[in-house]
Recover the amino acids of this structure.
């Protein structure tokens, strides 16, 4: 899917109607730091372009599921690098505003649908699916059973109980 093109006035109209959390995320210094460090880690020299793609998602102009493909196409990244960059951006930038992004991408008439932005964006499309949204990627702790198996033997640090 091609990256949507909007002029500056259209982008400001969209921005003005965003929920406050997304407005803050668009211009967040913390998100800028995350973007810069991700670009640095993967040797991406065009950090402003990555930031622009992130902004399109935060403003509801691009679906989160299209972000990885846009990185590959627009930035010329190989699929593995695009996937890794996308995973980090999802974790550090999109995940903290997941709920607001879900509401933003809800179809008109759905419960929790925000006000109409006035410019056709992907959230009004019939192609929206549950997979459009960021999947929680928090790491789950490893099962404790292996740890308990080790501890079943005698523990030299414990005194015997009688």
């Amino acid at each position: 899917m091609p990256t949507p093109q909007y002029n500056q006035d259209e982008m400001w109209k969209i921005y003005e109607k965003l929920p406050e959390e997304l407005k803050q995320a668009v211009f967040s210094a913390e998100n800028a730091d995350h973007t810069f460090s991700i670009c640095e880690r993967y040797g991406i020299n065009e950090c402003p372009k990555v930031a622009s793609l992130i902004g399109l998602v935060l403003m509801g102009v691009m679906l989160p599921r299209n972000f990885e493909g846009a990185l590959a196409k627009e930035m010329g990244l190989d699929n593995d690098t695009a996937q890794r960059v996308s995973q980090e951006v999802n974790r550090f930038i999109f995940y903290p505003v997941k709920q607001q992004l879900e509401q933003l991408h809800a179809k008109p008439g759905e419960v929790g649908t925000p006000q109409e932005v006035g410019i056709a964006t992907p959230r009004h499309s019939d192609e929206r699916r549950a997979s459009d949204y960021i999947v929680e990627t928090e790491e789950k702790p490893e099962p404790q059973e292996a740890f308990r198996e080790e501890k079943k033997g005698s523990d030299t640090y414990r005194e015997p109980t009688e």
Notes: The chain has one domain: 8-151.
